[in-house]
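Subject: Sanity check before I submit

Could someone independently write out the structure tokens for this chain? I want to compare against mine line by line before I put it in a report. The sequence has 148 residues.
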Amino acid sequence: MKDFNKVERHEAREIAVETLYAMDFNNQLHEPIDLTIFPGRSEEEMSALPENVVFYARYLIQGTLEHLEKIDEVIGRYSINRPVERINCVDRNILRISIFSMLYCAQDVHPAIIIDEGVKLSQSLSTDVAYKFINGVLDNIRKKEVHV
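---
Independent answer below. Compare away.
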């Protein structure tokens, strides 16, 4: 995987969450997607994005979609009081990209960084208290599922 700086990774994660959110909201998670242009972005906005950001966002989106069934099963195991379908759509997709990263990219990004990024995304994109839920679920997954 290419080298990305912290800002590029964060921006790519935001784009991935926004894209998965749009797909989830419109019941399109199981449909083919053309990632030439991210949902909600114009061609001008796309051309202004750094190449690394576009590359990493596409990687996160495609990987999450490819492993969606397994990722949702993991969420269901660790979100005991909230079934996957009842988790806020933004939070659900923050969890999805974070779990994809944790389970399939742990050699590239340390799980503690993935959890921190999930919390930051939640703080900027979701409700005031959602970050606690995101942190708890991801930390439990890290302790029981990730072998780093």
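---
OP: Matches mine. For the report I'm noting this point. Residues 122 and 130 are 6 Å apart (CA to CA).
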